[in-house]
Amino acid sequence: MPLELLLALVAGGISAIAAILHLTGRSERTVLTQASARDAWLRHCPGDSIRQVRPAADGHAALIAAQSGAGLVWSFGADTVARHLNGAAVSPVSAGLQFDFNDFSAPGLTLALTSAEREHWQALIAAAEEAA
Q1: 93-109 confidence digits (pLDDT tens)
Q2: What distance in Å separates the CA atoms of residue 98 and residue 19, rounded to the nearest whole number?
């Protein structure tokens, strides 16, 4: 089989799979509620004791106050990612908050938050850092 034909078949197959996944709704971002954010945190950090869960208004992230300190869960496509905020640099930006993690696997994240939500989250993060 000629290489050009093989490359066309592979590219077409990958494109078809991506289209099928998108059309069946499997490419939508996860929406986090208090319960689903709690479950996601415990899946990433089993055995942790959660004190408070604060989902973002858009439902694509949640701030976690746990025994181990403050943390963040956010949607990454149909799955979630969770990171502790220990050592993370949190700074306000016009669209929300910028998180720069001390972790090569999640170098940075910008969350879209309203201005009131941004101020509230910053206060919760500061309080969690003082408590730790």
Answers
A1: 988 999 998 888 888 89
A2: 32
